TrEMBL record:
<dbReference type="InterPro" id="IPR006222">
    <property type="entry name" value="GCVT_N"/>
</dbReference>
<dbReference type="InterPro" id="IPR013977">
    <property type="entry name" value="GcvT_C"/>
</dbReference>
<dbReference type="InterPro" id="IPR029043">
    <property type="entry name" value="GcvT/YgfZ_C"/>
</dbReference>
<dbReference type="InterPro" id="IPR028896">
    <property type="entry name" value="GcvT/YgfZ/DmdA"/>
</dbReference>
<dbReference type="InterPro" id="IPR017703">
    <property type="entry name" value="YgfZ/GCV_T_CS"/>
</dbReference>
<feature type="domain" description="GCVT N-terminal">
    <location>
        <begin position="6"/>
        <end position="260"/>
    </location>
</feature>
<protein>
    <submittedName>
        <fullName>Aminomethyltransferase</fullName>
    </submittedName>
</protein>
<keyword id="KW-0809">Transit peptide</keyword>
<dbReference type="Pfam" id="PF08669">
    <property type="entry name" value="GCV_T_C"/>
</dbReference>
<dbReference type="InterPro" id="IPR027266">
    <property type="entry name" value="TrmE/GcvT-like"/>
</dbReference>
<feature type="domain" description="Aminomethyltransferase C-terminal">
    <location>
        <begin position="280"/>
        <end position="353"/>
    </location>
</feature>
<dbReference type="Pfam" id="PF01571">
    <property type="entry name" value="GCV_T"/>
</dbReference>
Amino acid sequence: MEPLSLHFLHEQAGAHFLEVNGREAVADYGEVEAEYRAARQAVALHDATYREALRITGEDRVSFLHGMVTQEVKGLAAGAATYAAMITVKGAMVADARILRREADLLLDVEPGMGAKVQEFLGKFLISEDAELLEATGELGVLRLLGPRTAELLGAVTGGSFAPLAPDATRPLPLAGQEVLAVGRPGQEPGVDLLVPRAGLEAVWKALVAAGGAFGLKPLGWRAQEMLRVEAGVPRYGQDMVDTTIPLEASLTNAISYNKGCYIGQEVIARATFRGHMNRKLAGLLLGNTEAAPGTELKKDGKKVGWVTSVVRSPLKGQMVALGYVHRDHLEPGTVLAVGDGSAEATVAALPFT
């Protein structure tokens, strides 16, 4: 397991750890619901340096990547970011990524454990283009701020004001002697991802923690972040999306451009869009006190109609909630499905739960 760069700081703060696809992450700091409340009501700081990164350089880098992902790349301005999926010729997902266009390269921010897979996938199609794929996980780390007081904290720690960022908008920040790039996060809770040089992670973390006390900051572990993610209805590759998932099944409309021209797998996406429906789609599920495991089947009249992918206890709903795939005939909110082979039931709910 690849340890976090700031493992010793988290250990001092009472952290418990877990493994995510071969990389270490903080599970919690002993108070999961307090961490969750900070992200909802104040501000929370999450070490997401378990994420992996690739850089693409060369004169043809933009045109090459444009033809490899579902989202617009050529139209991205320098400094702008976007969310995209990579899919096979059959339309099945390889991975998802946040793409940042910089002056000299493209940066791909991917889920833990996905860097080598993405590099291999892209490398198969890199033939005569002037482009080079480089591992970049060791160069930058992501520190994530979530909560309504995020902008106040960033203003305080940088000695000025900080206007909230729209999703995928970016802004350079001088922070603790480091050149940091803030990237606006999508989702219902305000937040930013801070892209920090690895050598400066400790200084930036300490500066945010020191200034954050005045704003109710708490460090946020994986478990509380997962509660927020599932409540927001956001699928995660490796958990809710795998290598048989078609992006439209996971409602990744924000990852797809319908005006960009050809890319790998475009024909499948175009046909599915023209048809107007997928056979199954990601849905919310209200479970009451049922703690269903990911992979548990969902049934209607004894017939399998879906399965569970993510399950958390939701403070917002006061019960267990889940994400899962449900056949299109049973997607109406309020539909009751059997969970597994027992008597437990799940009620289909619209996403996001919030």
